[in-house]
């Protein structure tokens, strides 16, 4: 078996070093030969952000900042990001993109908060529409400075009020009044200790009696509750009946207004109303004629003499009938009537 020459060993060592370097270059630095896709976002300020910064979703690096350009038309910075090809067509268009600081050194990274899964997915070279602008550190520091100044002024005024002679007297008076108040409250509690204890005992006894009374009358209470439930159900049925009656009345009212049925025609038919009105007027005229003795019926009712004559005529007819029945047998009368009729 032949041995490797020195040149071969050096060549193998060089290739191994080159392979390790390539691994570190492509894996550790997260570089790839696979072509990715571009997405863009516009920020008012990207202070601290540099090319090569990480782009993350849920803490996972999905791309890097490829370039940062200024757009004079919008006055904003356009961040051009290159994403791994594996994340193509999976980032929703309603995703929110934010510029944040990471670590103690304050390195800037871009964070993407994914939108709804069923939303349309961003295509290559499209822009994020929902952008959260980063907070300006100088404005935060200015606000904190104003708050610190206000706190300093408040502390100075409080110190002046306490150190001042009048302020010291007011504080001392406040403490004295509070001490007196607590002392009076303590005296009231000590004086009425027995009454308070008695009240608590009475409340305990009353609670115990109430519990015993409820236990003794448990059946009655349950019966009362059952009766109330039955009454409630009965009221529900009654309410349903009233509801049906109301519906029927509403139907009748609609029929009357629409001129349907006897009552509806009477109310809605103008001709029928006029006929009824004329009939009432004629009846009123007849009644008035009878009242004033006009016509046969009127004279019969109002003329006493005619009444007496009619009464005498009826009496004479009755007498004639009696005489005929006494003088002539019924068979003879029948024969006569038959001859007359022939």
Describe the structure.
It is a single chain. The protein has 342 residues and is of the alpha/beta class. It has helices spanning 6-28, 137-163, 165-191, 193-216, 218-257, 261-268, 270-291, 295-302, 304-327, 330-341, and strands spanning 37-43, 54-57, 60-71, 76-83, 96-102, 107-113, 130-132. A seven-stranded mixed β-sheet has the order 1-4-3-2-6-5-7, with no helix packed on it. A hairpin with a 2-residue loop joins strand 2 (54-57) and strand 3. The protein starts with 5 loop residues before the first helix and ends with a helix. Pfam families: MlaD. InterPro entries: Mce/MlaD (IPR003399), MlaD_Phospholipid_Transporter (IPR052336).
SSE map:
Elements: H1 6-28, E1 37-43, E2 54-57, E3 60-71, E4 76-83, E5 96-102, E6 107-113, E7 130-132, H2 137-163, H3 165-191, H4 193-216, H5 218-257, H6 261-268, H7 270-291, H8 295-302, H9 304-327, H10 330-341
